[in-house]
Amino acid sequence: MFKQSIPTHSMPVPFDTERAANFKSAEEYAAQIEIRELNDLFVVYERFIGNYVDIEKHWYQFLDKYKAFLNEKTILLERFFNDPAITDMPQCICDICMTVEQDCDLDNVMWIGGGKWIVYQFDGEIKDIFETIQGIFSVWLPGSGYHMSRRYGLNIYRHIDRGSHSVIMDLYIPIS
């Protein structure tokens, strides 16, 4: 709540001391935000603890390891637990996940609860995801009339381009 009460237009990027995250206006974020309901998702997952900068390489390892479970209906997602702007970077937690059939016999499966979410489509370089998420939290959310619920945020990947280190993804922030 404290973070939401302080108007801001930029902030340092914790992963790169040479960069600052410069935010869009609330209206620019609002133009790309939708409110959606998401069903529960059954996933195989691996927990990542560390600097979020390292998630990209862990994703590629995860995809290579579980490629036999990939099909045209697979949803790739991550569930993030920490805000790297306020959490010690080596302590950030994220579950790297992909949907699987409920009869999957792996031990590392779980349900991720659905519900109501604000959704923002991100299309760009992986290094710029932090700036977008922080802008939504710092600029749009405080004046939106919505409040983040006590669930974890999700990033659902629509396209990953390993060569250019870019993605198209939907950023899901749980609301009440």
From TrEMBL:
It holds the Pfam family GyrI-like. Gene3D superfamilies: Regulatory factor, effector binding domain (3.20.80.10). SUPFAM superfamilies: Probable bacterial effector-binding domain (SSF55136). InterPro entries: AraC_E-bd, GyrI-like, Reg_factor_effector_dom_sf, SmbC-like. Residues 31-176 form the AraC effector-binding domain. This is GyrI-like domain-containing protein.
